[in-house]
Task: inverse folding
């Protein structure tokens, strides 16, 4: 029995000595720059019942993989593609086992370096469109930050971008919202979330998100423009008008905004029942479109829209004429309607000058030239249509 016990104790001692020797050998190989050999020695020590609970084992392991991850040897990095992950895992484990905190500062410096390496690796993977790897790398950066009681908002935001880029809208929205909750308050985040919500046809949610953004950034032009577009899509004309006017205050030289305002007034004219109201909105629409032209003399849409506006105004007058029973009154009414209709000519001509190939403009000019009996111009437009 004594001999058996002695043999057992000797075997156990030799096993422990072997693993301790591995730790020492790993350290020596690391110091000599033989990192692959150092990794080969350190790994068995991390699974041994004795050396696996030693802070030193894990600190050395962290140092080995940190040097591999941050080194310039591309072949070595390729041999150990998980070097960053292993280094982080090792330093966190070392801290856990370092009851006295003897190496707290040393491990902290190393972990900070690995946090930066994780973030950079995530950015590299993102650039290579390997979004799953990017998300994993950003997650490691977050993990290190959490070990310090911090939040890595850059990593959270970047992972949201990666999820969006890979087409995972649900997780992208979740991560963007997490970034906001962590204090990463930037107006573009609200726009990104809203854009994803619109893609999933959650227009109500998209509008709520933009309004939450505007509560934080009330003067942000892009958020104002987004709110305007969402309100227009939701057919909320009155609220959209307020949003457009606010956008004009922030960007007074933007012809698009005046054109949108003109379109809102045009729609109000179409919806109005009282003739005085109809004329009021038509007048405001024309004024807004003309302001768009004043801001950009080559703004096709404004010219075309004023032409359409006169078409609509004339149509409203022709409708009145058709209700008259007296021929005399009808002739007078029709003269008024014709005069309104013909006011569209210079605006459609302006639109045609800016875009000679636009088919709708050519068709409108054909009708107007027919009305004025201008045969030469009528034929010119007809030829352009290939008729």
Result:
């Amino acid at each position: 029995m004594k001999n058996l016990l002695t043999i057992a104790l000797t075997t156990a001692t030799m096993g422990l000595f072997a693993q301790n020797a591995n730790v020492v050998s790993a350290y020596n190989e690391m110091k000599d720059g033989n990192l692959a050999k150092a990794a080969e020695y350190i790994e068995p020590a991390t699974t041994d019942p004795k050396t696996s609970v030693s802070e030193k084992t894990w600190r050395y392991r962290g140092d080995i993989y940190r040097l591999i991850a941050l080194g310039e040897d591309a072949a070595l990095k390729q041999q150990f593609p998980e070097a960053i992950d292993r280094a982080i895992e090792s330093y966190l484990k070392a801290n856990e086992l370092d009851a006295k905190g003897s190496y707290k500062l040393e491990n902290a410096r190393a972990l900070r370096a690995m946090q930066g390496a994780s973030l950079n690796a995530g950015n590299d993977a993102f650039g290579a469109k390997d979004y799953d790897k990017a998300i994993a790398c950003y997650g490691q950066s977050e993990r290190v930050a959490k070990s310090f009681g911090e939040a890595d908002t850059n990593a959270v935001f970047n992972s949201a971008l990666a999820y969006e880029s890979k087409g995972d809208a649900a997780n992208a929205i979740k991560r963007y919202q997490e970034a906001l909750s962590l204090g990463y308050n930037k107006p573009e985040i609200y726009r990104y979330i809203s854009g994803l919500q619109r893609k999933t046809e959650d227009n109500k949610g998209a509008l709520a998100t933009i309004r939450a953004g505007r509560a934080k950034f009330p003067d942000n032009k892009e958020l104002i423009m987004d709110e305007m577009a969402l309100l227009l899509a939701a057919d909320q004309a009155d609220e959209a008008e307020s949003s457009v006017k606010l956008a004009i205050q922030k960007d007074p030289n933007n012809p698009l905004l005046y054109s949108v305002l003109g379109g809102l007034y045009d729609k109000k004219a179409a919806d109005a029942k009282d003739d005085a109201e109809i004329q009021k909105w038509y007048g405001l629409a024309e004024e807004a479109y003309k302001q768009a032209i004043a801001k950009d003399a080559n703004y096709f849409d404004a010219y075309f829209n004023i032409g359409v506006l006169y078409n609509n105004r004339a149509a409203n007058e022709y409708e009145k004429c058709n209700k008259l029973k007296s021929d005399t009154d009808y002739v007078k009414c029709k003269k008024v309607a014709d005069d309104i209709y013909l006011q569209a000519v210079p605006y459609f001509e302006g639109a045609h000058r800016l875009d000679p190939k636009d088919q709708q403009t050519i068709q409108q000019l054909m009708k107007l030239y027919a009305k004025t009996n201008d045969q030469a111009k009528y034929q010119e437009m007809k030829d352009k249509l290939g008729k």
Notes: The chain has 20 helices and no strands. Residues 232 and 298 are 25 Å apart (CA to CA). Confidence is low (pLDDT under 50) at residues 4-16.
